[in-house]
Amino acid sequence: MNNSTIVLVLLSVVIAGGLSYFQYFFKAKSRSNTTKLLAFLRFLTIFGLLLLLINPIVSRSTFETIKMPLPIVVDNSSSIVDLKANQITQEVYEKLASNSDLKNKFEVQTYRFDSEFQSAEAFDFKGKQTNLDAVAENLKSIYKNRSFPTVLISDGNQTTGSDYVFSFDAINKVYPLVVGDTTMYLDLKINQINVNKYAFHKNKFPVEVFLQYAGTKSVTAKFSITQGNEVLTSQSVSFSPSKKSEVINVLLPADKSGLQIYNAKISSSETEKNTYNNSKKFAVEVIDQKSEIALISAINHPDLGALKRAIETNAQRKVTILKPNQVNSLNNYNVLILYQPTAEFKSVLEANKKLKINTFILTGNKTDFGFLNQQQADFEFKMSSQKEDYLANFNSDFNVFATENIGFENFPPLENPYGTITAKPNVSVLLTSSIRNVATNAPLLAFSDTAGKRSAYLFGENIWKWRAESFVSKKSFEAFDVFIDKTIQFLASNDSKKSLIVNHERFYNSGDALEITAQYFNKNYELDEKARLTIAVTNTKTKQVKKYDLLKTTSNFKVNLDGLAPGSYSFTVKELNSNASYSSTFEVIDFDIEKQFVNPDVAKLKQLASQTKGAVYVPNQVDALIKALLDNPDYKEVQKAVVQKTPLIDWYWLLVLIAITLASEWFIRKYNGLL
How many helices (H) and strands (E) does the chain have? Predict the structure, then answer.
């Protein structure tokens, strides 16, 4: 209680005592014991009422002992079984988790991880991916702002995620417990294949193959790439204890259109413990059509390079940057991108009136909006010479084509002259603008489809900053580039609108996520959330058919087909109310990334232990690990003071006491004839 409250309590004692004295002793003829009792009861009543009016806060301190957390994290991926370490992993875990001394000192919590991280006390070692980076990020989140050691029972072989060595917090020690046979075996391995998803018919496409060797003697191996029974390329590769890797670059012919499956293989006369990683399949879709895009600009700007790179990440696109006076003919182009058009673009736009090539117009501070008003009928511009920054807002009701919000609200503003942009009825707006977080409801990115001609408009320059920000937030340009690709895809096609749109890959690796998404639009081309979509998947070899329902998500329908055996599949997506359907094929390629390892990655786990100032242990050193954890003086219990503050008005016993004193006083006075 503070000083003012104490003064008020003391004043209440004086007031209660004074009133009791005045009522029972002032001018009283006698001071019997009954009178003294009545005065005391009156004092308690008045004092209790005054205390309730003052309502002082009563504080009470208690001490709570908090143990340091000790997460025991177990690798639940199938590579543990492949390394024949599942039994020893289970035994090591049980010995650690059941140790009474560790439980007395630490708050022991157990987890497992494969592609995901979760709390667990049982393990099946069936995970299809190993993501050690997820372990680090989840532990940081769970034990935020706390110090703790971590016991990591794993083979250290990661198949997905960022490099885990630097993901763990350096101030919290990690004690890797390495499971699996650490004996070095001779092993030839295809570590990685880099190849584009698409190639063009009658061209050659590059393939980059990373080969890896583990062993103690020199070996000559044969590397080949085959398609069916045909050997496309073959060569000898030499390895030695000092030369443990090789990069092979070859050009393969794209003689057949459609999805083509290839098999890369390395072999030698030596005996290997693991031959599964000696071969790896890859697929390329050979296409015989390429979109030619003219990016026309009278000025130099970073946006030009950003657009070219984003568009050309799709191998089906080729972008040529031209100045307006360099355009001799538009016949070879499928899409025109007009960057900040001015009167210099007149000849280009006049030529396009006959060809009706779809256009993407981007404006900025150098744009001649008077000229633009004359050349198009989708917007009316009333612009000033003042520059303004425009932030983006995503329109979730946009339904011209399927797209996602890639974080537009967090992107830097685009710069454009200040003014009024009025859209005509045939325009669909994907992004609206705001100025300093004040919504203008004016279009920022919009699309139109009129009389067979499609157009897109972006009102602002510096879209290169959007691509950079997308990379910073997502560690990849992919999300932004896919967004641009969908814009170009809309412009590159003049096909009539389809009611059922299905998105899928042409091939998947077994073990990867296999998702197919779809959208269904009604007659007004509005997204129909009440649609009933099903998919029938047929194995083309066994003719086995599996049927699934597509589940509704926030923006589309989705089905997860994980677990399909490697092979070729055909499928049909059907909307049950309208019988609209879509049919296509995909291939599941036989590839189990967890079977690529012969040994645990001891070097990586040692690096992790060194980075966090921990130590590496093996299964027969579990007792030493337990002792190190118990003897470490840094791992102590923490006493935390818990202060509970309770207002006096919450003490219902005080109200009961006041009621008892009042009732007692009345009864005594009644009994003694004083009423």
Answer: 14, 33
Give the span between the Cα atoms of 637 and 644, in whole angstroms. 22
pLDDT, tens digit, for every residue of 577-610? 888 899 999 988 887 778 888 889 899 999 999 9
Q: Cβ distance 43 to 65 under 8 Å?
A: no
Six-digit token string for 464: 């290169």
Q: CA 242 to CA 644: how far, in whole Å?
A: 68
pLDDT tens digit string along 518-545? 988 776 566 788 889 999 999 999 999 9
140 and 114 Cβ atoms separated by less than 8 Å: no
Q: What is d(CA 546, CA 535) in angstroms, rounded to the nearest whole number?
A: 8
How many angstroms separate the CA atoms of 39 and 16, rounded?
Answer: 10
Task: Give the C-alpha distances (Å, rounded to integers) separating 174 from 72, 85, 504, 625.
Answer: 10, 21, 41, 11
User: HSE on the CB side for 80, CA within 13 Å?
Assistant: 28
Report the C-alpha gap between 269 and 221 in whole angstroms.
Answer: 8
Residue 164: count of CB within 10 angstroms of its CB: 24
| CB-count exposure of residue 300 (10 Å: 0-12, 13-18, 19+) | exposed
**pLDDT, greater one: 111 or 664:** 111
CB 550 within 8 A of CB 572: no
Rounded to 5 degrees, what angle do the CA atoms 383, 403, 474 make? Answer: 95
DSSP reduced 3-state for 312? helix
495's CB contacts (< 8 A; 6+ apart) are none
| Residues 533, 520 contacting (CB under 8 angstroms) | yes
Tokens 């579990």 belong to: 622
d(CA 78, CA 180): 12
Q: How far apart are CA 352 and CA 354, in angstroms?
A: 5
Distances (CA, A) of 316 to 158, 205, 289, 452, 453: 33, 13, 7, 23, 21
Residue 546 sits at φ, ψ, to 5 deg, of -125, 135
Q: Which one-letter amino acid corresponds to residue 167?
A: S
| Of residues 180, 176, 184, the one with CA closest to residue 151 | 176
